[in-house]
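Bit of a strange request maybe. I'm writing a small parser for structure token strings and I need a real example to test against, not something I typed by hand. Could someone generate the tokens for this chain?
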Amino acid sequence: MLKVALVLSMLFQLGAAVYAISLIRRTRYNVSWILISLGLVLMAVRRLFDFSSLFWDSKLFQQEEINSWVGVLISVLIFIGVIFIKKIFNLQDHIERLRLDNENKTLAAVIEAEDKARQSFARELHDGLGPVLSSIKMSLSAIDPSAMEQKNRRIIERSCLATDEAITSLKEISNLLSPHILENYGLIEAIRATADPLLEGTQIQVEINSNISDRRFHRNLEINVYRIVCELINNSVTHADPGYIRIDIMEEQHVISLTYKDDGSGFDLDNGLQDKVIPGMGLDNIFSRIKLLKGQYQIDTSPDSGFIITLKIPIE
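Reply from user aminoacidic:
Good idea to test on real output. This should exercise your parser:
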């Protein structure tokens, strides 16, 4: 049994040594891996010494000291190799940091491209369709209603009203795509101005509290927080049927703290996250923006118990 065990032990150690040596190139000849591989080779050789004593009266090497010195050398190689292996972990950490950095850059590029597309579309609407509608309105306004029949007069009046509504809708769409009020007046005023048309036609009461007043932050933070809040309001109106929405935006020690709460239907958070959240809610987009801002979030919701999300975003 001892002979069989020694044979298997020797074969396993030889296999481990050969496999370790084959990986040296993949480690780019890392010192720690080379030392550990040498240690494994010497362990296999030492096992060969022990194995030979079971079959021959004399060992392959007469000097008992050789076996002992091999053991000492193995210990030294493994010890130094383990010390140097820290470099491998440092390299892995560096690679992980590069991966996260590349992910953030890719995410930032995607969101920036999306915002640029929104701005371009808004500009085309405002500069292209806007003047056309204004010209139609001017032409209709130049018509003298008293010089036409009552039927035609009503047609002209309805046309003027429809043109006014089209111009108003165009301004609202343009502002949602590229919020000029955000650039001119800041985050809080932009959220207030956007919440009104989103909640128009509903009985939802909205409360916005903030201690940042008209303070300005870098555009990347403002535009992403603005988009997050707009998406949350839209989710509440579309999916939750709430009666009340509260938004708290506070600055606390170089951190923007945002708490959004509604008293709507809520949802099962565990199943929702497993199912990529409720389709159409756009929470993936919200999470991406939070990640881009290096923020943290916490969600508290359950069926028929409303929805609360708290964000902590550092001010850089």
